[in-house]
Write a structure and sequence with these properties.
By secondary structure, this protein is an alpha/beta fold. The protein has 25 helices and 23 strands.
Length: about 750
């Protein structure tokens, strides 16, 4: 039975059109189940349309349509569950369609085809004799429907795009905010990593070809590394330096050569080594480690390109395009002419991938995780990419294009208006000062962002430099990075978070395989288990700050008071060693903890006796309070920072910190959202840390509201029963103050 399921699924997936796929489906399912009739109905605009059949009247295909409220097929779609009837005629929802000639059929079994919570259609099998299909038959049809859902969804999307009967919307995840309007350029023709396994006629000659290809690849990567190094984008430069190091004899370069020495052609050797390594990384559960498989693929394809078509001319389109690829690599983005790259859409990758980091650094709107987009026939189609909302609109009508162009113009005008006040303090109308800080990870642009209105760096993610290396950075390397950050902040305070890896941020050279990484070995837990790494980082931070007063040190993922005590012991050790050996004038910086684990909400009095400040990580606190993995697409819709339970927890934290004299700030995404900033200020938070793109907007908004009004709004908000009700209430408040445009 498993072989039959596989054969049917593969045949459908390989079909070039939806019509052919559905014809193959009904014919093969009818034969596999040894039944007399199999039909499939596809849902279009809330109507189920007979789209293929083997057993009913063929002329009825496309003509028989029914709403969800009619017939047994409609009932299956409506209930989203299978129906198995011995005699369909006896069911009250039975409806006869004379044009399909189904009078002779009585036994009825149907299963819904559902993809990502959306009903795509219904598959039905029927027999003349009145009998109930057995459990095995029912299980087979339900399994088949589930396995076919993705293939049918992709073919349906492709048919919709090619038919151009309506605008088509694709959804994904924002990797870099912004809106772009341009024609799509689909690049799916990269040299495949899967090369034929061919034996070498002359091993020496193959080794020479390989070394030449590696040399050319090395030159290209070196040029890219130097390009960004010259622009003082050290983290981006290090991405290409890391790829470069993979070509060394001690790494993949040596593996390629050893494979050739075993008698394989150069192309086969590169393919074999790459696929072997990719399989190892792809089998790991950690999101970041999976993304590192793309680095190996990128490098392999670079070398293969130099072996197969070394004279390829770099593509440069006539006009700006939105690049649509299965998986973007850093080389492609770096080499693509910036003035011709309007946006980026990918099927694979994550928000921590090197390509996503580069897209943000280049200020290119980018969206990832767009299912089956490269197979949808988008090439040369006009598209609108609204990366901020995770939407790609294909073949928009002229009026929609005009609306988006007006939206872009309006947003630019609003941004100019917001930016015009950025150098003014965030002071509410009734005189309450709110300090706005910057969340940073890359050095790129930090100096200009601080100059553009931030009161300092409220969160510097030290893990980013770690993630962009192929090994743990040395103490001197860390000192250099931290010193540059402190200098870029120009005497403004800088909160440096100690290494926060694990969960969705593992290190490529320090794999952590766990069943549930978000509840596992991460943050301060890892640092305390590896004091040799923790002490190096603490020493580097202290030396970078020297006798200055900018630095504050923040401990992530604290769940026990003992963890704070142990961390303070290590800090004291590092501090005393440096004062004794290097700098007697060294000053001890303030130390704080991230408030992410709900248990710490109930120990803030004890926390206040140990540390100087608390920084609320609203993202992790929300996912732990709601038991929702925000990176899991199956449950991500349940992640809601405006859930009343989350807001009440944040309110209680602010109140308790104030009563215990503990300084508190918020550095999660909520702080950078207009609605979130209003509610946090109403709760009493006076330090908010956010991305650079949110600073001007939040500053502009806070200068136009009064705290006492926000406190009254908060009283109503905390009585709401859902996040939806909370957002609607805040939306009404903004509308009453003529500030609703801030939400666009």
């Amino acid at each position: 039975m498993l072989n039959t399921l596989r054969d049917i699924t593969q045949a459908v997936a390989a079909a070039h059109t939806l019509e052919l796929a559905l014809e193959l489906l009904v014919a093969q399912t009818k034969a596999a189940m040894d039944t007399q009739c199999c039909s499939i109905y596809i849902l279009e605009q809330q109507e189920l349309i007979l789209s293929a059949t083997d057993g009913l009247e063929k002329s009825a295909v496309g003509r028989v349509k029914m709403p969800l409220s009619e017939g047994l097929v409609g009932l299956v779609a409506e209930r989203e569950e299978a129906i198995n009837l011995a005699d369909a005629r006896k069911h009250p929802r039975f409806k006869l369609f004379p044009e399909v000639a189904e009078e002779e059929y009585r036994a009825f079994l149907a299963a819904p085809i559902i993809y990502q919570k959306q009903v795509l259609g219904v598959i039905v099998v029927q027999q003349a004799s009145a009998r109930q299909f057995n459990e095995g038959e029912e299980a087979f049809l339900m399994t088949l429907a589930a396995q076919l859902a993705m293939a049918i969804s992709g073919l349906k999307r492709r048919a919709d795009v090619q038919g151009l009967e309506q605008q088509i919307l694709f959804n994904g995840t924002c990797a870099s905010t912004g809106i772009a309007i341009a024609h799509a350029l689909v690049l799916g023709g990269e040299i495949p990593l899967e090369q034929p396994e061919l034996r070498a006629a002359d091993t020496v000659a193959e080794l020479l070809r390989l070394r030449t290809a590696i040399g050319r690849s090395r030159d290209a990567l070196s040029a890219l590394a130097q390009k960004f190094d010259g622009e003082q984008d050290e983290e981006l430069s290090s991405i290409f330096s890391a790829l470069l190091s993979l070509l060394d004899e001690a790494s993949l370069g040596g593996e390629y050569a050893r494979e050739v020495s075993l008698g394989w052609r150069a192309e086969s050797a590169v393919s074999r080594v790459s696929l072997r390594c990719i399989a190892q990384f792809s089998a790991m559960e950690d999101a970041y480690l999976k993304e590192r498989a793309s680095d190996i693929r990128e490098l392999g394809q670079r070398v293969l390109r130099q072996l197969i078509e070394p004279g390829r001319v770099t593509l440069e389109p006539d006009k700006p395009v939105i690049l649509v690829v299965r998986e973007a690599d850093t080389g492609l983005l770096a080499e693509f002419p910036r003035q011709k790259l309007a946006g980026l859409v990918t099927e694979l990758g994550g928000v921590n991938s090197h390509a996503a980091i580069l897209a943000r650094a280049l200020d290119v709107p980018a969206m990832i995780g767009v299912d089956q987009v490269t197979q949808a026939g988008l090439d040369q189609k006009l598209v609108v990419l609204n990366a901020s909302r995770g939407q790609l609109l294909v073949s928009p009508t002229p009026s929609v294009v005009d609306e988006y162009r007006n939206l872009i113009s309006a947003q630019r005008a609003l941004q100019r208006r917001y930016a015009s006040e950025l150098n003014e303090p965030a002071l509410t109308l009734d005189g309450h000062r709110v300090h706005l800080f910057l969340n940073a990870g890359l050095l790129s642009g930090v100096a200009s962002e601080i100059a553009d209105g931030a009161d300092g760096i409220g969160l510097y993610r030290t893990e980013i430099p770690f993630m962009l290396q192929q090994r743990f950075p040395s103490e001197s390397e860390q000192i250099k990075v931290y010193r540059q950050v402190l200098q870029a902040a120009a005497n403004k305070p800088v909160v440096m978070r100690t290494l926060d890896v694990g969960g969705d941020k593992p290190l490529p050279y320090f794999p952590i395989k766990e069943e549930n990484p978000f509840l596992g070995w991460r943050g301060v837990r890892l640092s305390l288990d590896h004091p040799e790494l923790f002490l190096v980082q603490l020493r580097a931070m202290l030396q970078a700050a020297a006798d200055g007063e900018q630095l504050k040190i923040l401990l992530p993922m604290v769940s026990h008071l003992d963890e704070i005590d142990q961390a303070l012991t290590y800090l004291e050790q590092a501090f005393n060693e440096l004062r004794t050996d290097f700098n007697a004038q060294l000053k001890r910086p303030p130390i704080g903890v991230m408030l992410e684990v709900p248990a710490l909400l109930y120990q803030l009095q004890e926390v206040a006796a140990r540390v100087d400040f608390v920084s609320v990580g609203s993202n992790d606190l929300t996912q732990y309070l709601l038991a929702v993995d925000r990176n899991n697409p199956r449950v991500s819709s349940l992640f809601d920072s405006y859930h009343p339970g989350v807001l009440r927890a944040l309110h209680a934290a602010a109140r308790d910190c104030q009563s215990y004299g503990l300084a508190v700030s918020v550095c999660g995404e909520l702080a950078g959202e207009p609605m979130g900033a209003l509610l946090l200020v109403a709760m009493g938070y006076r330090e908010l840390s956010m991305s650079q793109g949110s600073l001007a907007k939040v500053n502009y908004l806070l200068r136009r509201v009064e705290c006492h009004e926000l406190e009254q709004l908060l009283e109503l908000v905390l009585q709401m029963s859902s996040g939806y009700e909370v957002r609607e209430l805040v939306r009404e408040y903004l509308s009453s103050r003529e500030l609703s445009s801030i939400l666009d």
